Amino acid sequence: MKELELQGQPVALHENTPAADSDAPPWLLIHGAGHDHAVWNEVAAGLAANGEHVLIPDLPGHGGSGGSPLPDIDAMARWVLALADALGHERIRLCGHSMGSLVALAAAGQAPARVDRLALVGCSVPMPVSPFLLDAAQNEPENAFALINKFSFAPAEVLGESRRAGLEAANLQRMHQQGARVLASDLNACNAWQDGLAAAARVSCPTLLVSGEFDRMTPADAVKPLSDSLEKMGCSTRMIVLAGAGHSMMNEAPDGLVDALRGA
Question: Residue 40 belongs to what domain range?
Answer without folding.
Answer: 2-128+189-262
